[in-house]
Amino acid sequence: MLQTIHLHLPAPLPFQSLNVHPETLVSDLPLPPTLLSNNTYLRTSTHILSPHTPISSLRHADSPNHPISINVCARLPGGKGGFGSQLRAAGGRMSTGKATNMDSCRDLSGRRLGTIKEAQRQADLLESAPALRAKLAAEEKSKLEALERKLGISTPDSFDDDAQGEGSSKRKVEDERCEQGHAAQEKEETHYYHSYRRYQREGQREALTNVA
User: How far apart (Å, rounded) are the C-alpha atoms in residues 55 and 23?
Assistant: First the structure.
């Protein structure tokens, strides 16, 4: 009894129906001459067929007379290789290029993270301002004393008490001027900080209004 084979060829070749002996091997199926054996392979809906597979082993257990469907698939020629390494390199470049700046994001209160960071930086700057001013004053004083010693203006053994008193009064006046300048600078920084905070609160209110 012959077995019916439904042979599905690659497009645009038409479908073929064959009647072969059950003991026929897969490699003996009559394929069109345009399909060379080394450029095609045969498979069912579940697995690839070996050339030495007999047709009888492909029969359905429940209905042996049911036609067997076999697909003729064309082999795809391989490339030069290296495509996987290119993909991995591209993936590495994409992962390193991810944005890490989250300043435009908002917290649960609707405030931007960049605004919060800037306010914290300004607060830290105001807290460290007195120590910074003291450090600058000490550096200026040491420079002034070094310059006086270099010019011989004030040496302990070359002036009497009046000269020493005059030099101390000059330094006192200079220290007062430095303190006045630092006070004006601190006042200006405080004014800038309060203005920035007022601008920040107005921006938060506007953002909350837009969200609502």
Answer: 6
Q: At what angle do helices 161-211 and 113-127 cross, to 10 degrees?
A: 160
In angstroms, the CA 65 to CA 56 distance is 11
Instruction: State residue 155's pLDDT score.
Output: 47
Distance CA 90, CA 208 (A): 41
Pairing of strands 16-20, 3-8: antiparallel
Residues 6+ apart with CB under 8 A from 58: 44, 49, 68, 70
Bridge partners of 45, per DSSP, are none
Q: Residue 17 is encoded by which pair of tokens?
A: 């129906």
Q: How is the chain split into domains, by residue range?
A: 3-74, 113-211
pTM: 0.36
* Structure-block tokens of residue 152: 């011989």
Q: Which fold, 3-74?
A: Ubiquitin-like (UB roll) (3.10.20)
* DSSP state at residue 9: P
pLDDT one-digit tens code per residue, 163-201: 455 555 666 666 676 676 667 667 777 776 777 667 667
